[in-house]
Structures are given as structure tokens and as C-alpha cells.
Amino acid sequence: MPLLVSFNVDGTINDEPETEEDSIPPEPLAISVLEETEVVFEVIEEGTKNGKTLLVGIDGYRYFQKKALTKSVLWSCSVTSAKCRCYASVIQKGMRLLVVPTNIPINQKQHC
Predict the structure, then answer these.
(1) Structural domain total, the chain
(2) Closest CA to 99 of 58, 71, 70, 69
(3) 25 part of a folded domain
(4) CATH of the domain at 71
(5) What residues does 67 pair with on adjacent strands?
(6) Is residue 45 one of the residues assigned to a domain?
(7) Residue 86 lies in domain
(8) Distance from C-alpha of 93 to C-alpha of 95, rounded to nearest angstrom
């Protein structure tokens, strides 16, 4: 049976595959701007199982009173589980409430 494949007798192998390059146009980056919305809070006396004060926002998140100072109150998110510890907090100064931003990765939500 005759050999139908040509080869090089000097022992070198020339198996360099041809390189194909496609010109792929870059996709535009998706930019989303989150609008800041006003959150209304309600203080519920004896709102926890232990009878402690609870701060509830209309966005559904609940905060427990972590520390009361002379001019302000620090509220911490009540979400705590084995998988997630939420560090979102609110500072209350008089009747003003300030939601404190947390240092979280961009692909995670502020609350767990």
C-alpha cells in the first residue's frame, strides 16, 4: 500500500497551525445609575422578641439599636445568619437619619 502523506526526511516536524484572528468589535460597557430614593423609617418600641426598640424602613429592612449616645443613635441591620452578616447601618441625629454606606464588593447587594 503506497504512502499518501508527504513528510520531511530531515527529522523536523512542521506542525505549526495556522492562526486565525477575528476582529471582534468591543462591546460598550453597561452603565446603570441608581437613583437615590428617600427611605421613610418608623421606630417601633418593643419591636424585637426581647422587647427592644426596632427601626423599620419602608424598603423592608430592620435595624436594631446598637448604641445610644448623647446626640445620636447607631442602628445596625438585623440580618445575621451563618452565611451572611449584614453591616449596613443608620445613624440617627435628632430626627435626621443617615444610611451609612458599607464597603462591599460591586457584585453584592448592600443587604444580604
Answers:
(1) 1
(2) 58
(3) no
(4) 2.20.25.240
(5) 74
(6) yes
(7) 41-100
(8) 6
Contact (Cβ atoms closer than 8 angstroms) between residue 99 and residue 39: yes
Which position has the grid cell 516536524? Answer: 13
Residue 62 domain flag = yes
DSSP string, the chain: ----S---TTS-----PPP----PPPPPPP---PPP----EEEETT-STTS--EEEETTS-EEEEEEE-SS-EEEEE--B-SS-B---EEEEETTEEEEEP----TTS-S--
**Could you list the pLDDT tens digit for every one of the 112 residues in the chain?**
555 655 556 666 666 666 777 777 777 766 655 555 667 788 888 887 888 888 888 877 888 888 888 899 898 888 777 777 777 888 888 888 877 766 555 555 556 5
Distances (CA, A) of 63 to 56, 72, 107, 108: 6, 15, 23, 19
Residue 80 lies in a domain: yes
Q: What pLDDT is recorded for position 36?
A: 57
Pick from 23, 22, 60: which is nearest to 42 by CA? 60
